[in-house]
UniProtKB/TrEMBL annotation:
Keywords: Cobalamin biosynthesis, Methyltransferase, S-adenosyl-L-methionine, Transferase. This is Cobalt-precorrin-5B C(1)-methyltransferase. It is an enzyme of class 2 (transferase). It comes from Desulforamulus ferrireducens. One of its GO terms (molecular function) is cobalt-precorrin-5B C1-methyltransferase activity.
Amino acid sequence: MDKDNRVWRTGYTTGSCAAGAAKAAALALLTGEVVSQVTIALPAGGQLNLNVAWVEKNEGSCRAAVVKDAGDDPDVTHGLTIVAEVCLEGSALVITGGQGVGTVTKPGLAVPVGESAINPVPRQMIEREVREILGQRGARVVISAPGGEVLAQRTMNPRLGILGGISILGTSGIVRPMSEEAYRRSLVPQIDQALALGYQALVLTPGHLGVKKALQLGLPQEAIIETSNFIGSMLEECAQRPVEAVLLLGHLGKLVKVAAGIFHTLGKLADGRRETIAAHAALAGAPREVIRQLMNMNTSEEAVEILGKTGYHSVFHHLAAAASQRAAAYSGDKFMVGTLMYALNGDVVGYDQGACQIGRKLGWQLPLR
């Protein structure tokens, strides 16, 4: 319930859908019974009732479908049909992906390279529900998501090297609406994948523009990590892993906040960009009129023109160094930190020596000293 007394409706994961569809298909295969609803067990305890959209009986196999309902969460897979086909074969239970379910092509994820992107907990859920119906009989379960190939382009899958469709996900089986924590967790596998590919110096950037800029500079795509507004959380995740260096790369409006010690950069939670830029300009000796102009900015981008015209452009270098110092301290000094910030037109406006050192190590094409 929010401040307006609205009750937010929960939903269920693609993993729950797959488990429910597999159970309905297994039931039709073994007994011939066609059901309109199934009950599955949730990983942390409790049960979930799922409506079965349809069941199709074929010679030697059965298919069933559950439509994903994300509740009030803005999930791109809301309304997607998850299909499970079950057939009796062999002596083991084999679970794999079909149309619309991606394939893992890069290391560092929870699923090995070459396998379908069905995460461990959903696999366990599917196996539990199918075993409840089939016992120890051997079977092959194919999970499909028609249309998943298109939807996957709106997820992190292409960046993570999951090709051809969506992932079957979920650790609890339940989708909690507007879950910031779930989104933050979805960003973390980028770090593990970069490490698995041999990169111990990483580039952390808040979003797509930062990724584009990093690629323009010649930085390796596999080492680039999107943080969204969770710069602090992603630094903490890096500190728990064998990361040796982090290059913070982003628009000055985001990284000036880090220089002020703000590590969740969503604007409505915390700001201070004008004050931070003005304070560093004052430390550099800028006159009162320059400080006044900085304090009256509508956007931090205006500082580029103000400081450039008045001869104080080096303030951005000081801000970059301050961001690095804050980030290193926040991370317990577990690794080197460098910072590079750019303006909206793509021009690099500020950087520190740490950025130069890390950038050269990663092979960037930027003639900075």
